[in-house]
Amino acid sequence: MDIQDLILKDLDTLMQAKSQYNGLNIQDVIEICAYVGASVLRQRYKMTQEVNDSEINHVYGIIGNFCFQSFKDNFGQEQFDEMLIKSLNLLKEPTFDQDCLVFFDRILNLKKST
Q: C-alpha 114: how far from its chain's center?
């Protein structure tokens, strides 16, 4: 599975789980995308001890394209910028790895409880 397939699978799984529980709003989309993007970059860094600008642009390009196609009028440049800033700030948190696990588990457990 290549990086694009992995990202799209994660986005689809998390957004479906969230939307089946109590709907999905644009803030949910921004938050899910921020965590997925940061998580992918963090995993890449763990494997190689570096992440270059091209890899960062590729990851957020995939996420941006997914959102622009899926949410059309509700996800524009302003929402993309908000997601990008949030995602990069998440990576600065010393507890990011644990926070990420908690975030993903919380959403996926919503699905199981319905």
A: 23
Six-digit token string for 19: 């939307």
Tell me the domain boundaries of the chain. 3-97
CA distance 22 to 69: 22
- Residue written as token pair 């938050």: 31
CA 88 to chain centre: 11
CA-based nearest residue to 23, from 113, 112, 110, 98: 110
User: Helix 26-48 crosses helix 77-92 at what angle (to 10 degrees)?
Assistant: 40
Which residues make Cβ contacts (< 8 Å) with residue 91, sequence separation at least 6?
38, 41, 42
Q: What is the pLDDT of residues 46-69, one digit of tens each?
A: 999 999 999 999 999 999 999 999
Burial class (CB in 10 A: 0-12, 13-18, 19+), 87: buried
